[in-house]
Amino acid sequence: MRARLREFRALSRAQKLLLCEAVALIVASKVLLTVVGLEDAERCFGTLSQFLPCHRQPEAPKSVRWAVLTAGSRLPGTYDCLERALTGSTLLEASDFPHCLRFGVDTQSDTFEAHAWVESNGDVLIGDVDDFGRFRALTEREVRG
């Protein structure tokens, strides 16, 4: 625990703020998705993104990726691709970065598996997996900056 506190103290003020936002959003996404479902959670996060501070720097997409992955891996419990993708999309939207939130399904397996990810500038920013080619995008939500 002390090591994590030291790590947190060593971060810049901007990194601390972004990480705290990611922690709050990823926990909120888990609750909202469970209680109200995807459509209402997206609507709520879309509104919330208007009130978050803007992190408009050239490295912001990479910073958002770092914050979401760090929050999702350091918090107790499990946070899946949908919760991470919603969190990342919200943080990117708050900073007016164009990106695309995609939802897809596994087309190569006999079992149903869905996946959510965020693309920015043609690259998968959040939700990259080793065998990504097996997923076919069903829907996407483009967010223009």
UniProtKB/TrEMBL annotation:
<dbReference type="InterPro" id="IPR053521">
    <property type="entry name" value="McjB-like"/>
</dbReference>
<protein>
    <submittedName>
        <fullName>Transglutaminase superfamily protein</fullName>
    </submittedName>
</protein>
<dbReference type="Pfam" id="PF13471">
    <property type="entry name" value="Transglut_core3"/>
</dbReference>
<feature type="domain" description="Microcin J25-processing protein McjB C-terminal">
    <location>
        <begin position="60"/>
        <end position="138"/>
    </location>
</feature>
<dbReference type="InterPro" id="IPR032708">
    <property type="entry name" value="McjB_C"/>
</dbReference>
